[in-house]
Amino acid sequence: MDIVERFLAYTQINTTTDREKGAIGIMPSSSGQMVLAKHLEQELLALGLKDVQVSERAIVTATLLANTNKDIPIVAFFAHLDTSAEQKADTKAKIVTHTSSSICLNEALDIYLTEKEFPELAQYRGQDIVVTDGTSLLGADDKAAIAAIMDTLQFYKANPDIPHGTVKVAFLPDEEQGLRGAKAFDVESFGAQFGYTLDCCGIGEFVCENWNAGDAVVTFIGQSAHPMSAKGKLKNSLLMAHKFIAMLPPGEAPEYTEKREGYYWVKELSGNSAKTVLKLDIRDFCREGYKNRMAFLGKLAEQMNDLYGGVVIDLSDRYENVANSLQGGMSYPISIAQEAYQNCDIEMRQIPMRGGYDGAVLSQKGLPCPNLFTGAHNFHSIYEYLPVDSLKAASKVVQQIISTTHNKFNQ
Length: 411
Ligand SMILES: [Zn+2]
What we know:
Blueprint: H1 3-11, H2 19-23, H3 31-46, E1 50-54, E2 60-64, E3 75-80, E4 94-97, E5 102-106, E6 111-114, E7 128-131, H4 140-158, E8 167-172, H5 180-184, H6 187-190, E9 194-200, E10 205-210, E11 212-221, H7 237-246, E12 263-271, E13 275-284, H8 287-308, E14 311-319, H9 332-343, E15 349-353, H10 358-364, E16 371-373, E17 386-387, H11 388-409
Parallel strand pairs: 3-8, 3-9, 9-16, 10-15
Antiparallel strand pairs: 1-2, 2-8, 4-7, 5-6, 7-17, 10-16, 11-13, 11-14, 12-13
Helix pairs in contact: 1-4, 4-11, 9-11
């Protein structure tokens, strides 16, 4: 099957993640994810893969057995089944040739994808691009990745003489709500030595560093009082929280930072004079910097507690920078990817990812996992689009990684 047909077939299955169901621990959070998982199970069996499994949580795993006796490390490829809850409608994808400065997504609704608003679109002039009708997201995040991985497996079925080591694939649910599928994934029994997620954007992108990420929940307990008798009695927890926020380093917030600059993000503030809860996101590329930020918040809470009493902070780690797992002798997944991009004539653009992805969680669990491009742009939006040539390139890169891994270790 052609890779584009394959991708379009996946977009027909609505796999929008359901945050409410996810919040109460249901996985997969939406039934469409299981429908897609079962669909992929059939395709994997037809492609001759072994150990094809779909767990009750819609985690799909399968193995392409090595066709050589050499001791080649097992490489894995990951994609996620769900799509973002920002847009829930069924996807109506179409292929258009991009010939002018804009693409009409929906004439009746007057929705256009324009180079003015999205300048990177200009580099795809003359190319076929998969877009939506402007009423849904495309779901190339991350169905383009699934299509690229499956296309590679089809390539190896059609070319059994091309030598390769063992390759594992996994499709995970509910990435779009706290990387839940990756968190539930059993890395140890999966048995791969290294892997790659395909969850980046445009052709050439490559992620081998992202945030160290944590959360802080600060609870301020005050003392309520009737205004008649509030003087000297009322201890307003809302104002305590405001003091706390005022002591955060100015400018170290998402709206003032970029590239590798870390921040504190005041995410949520709720309460009354008796009790206020403040939630913050803490992000830093550098492990030391991350630790310092967490320690700073802890210290701040301690000092305020000494002053007013009733201040409790709960600090927790969310995910780690993948770079922490790719140091020294464990940097070979990066060099293999570099060689693979080069062999495909694709210029690699390393992006410090200001976010998390499944591979960050998998790396932390002991399976180092950089992130490859899918070729698509404008994730989570009605303007999401996927140039066909970029999708094909994503599949080529996966093939090249498998070949490069074989060649590198075939001594
Ligand atoms: Zn994604």
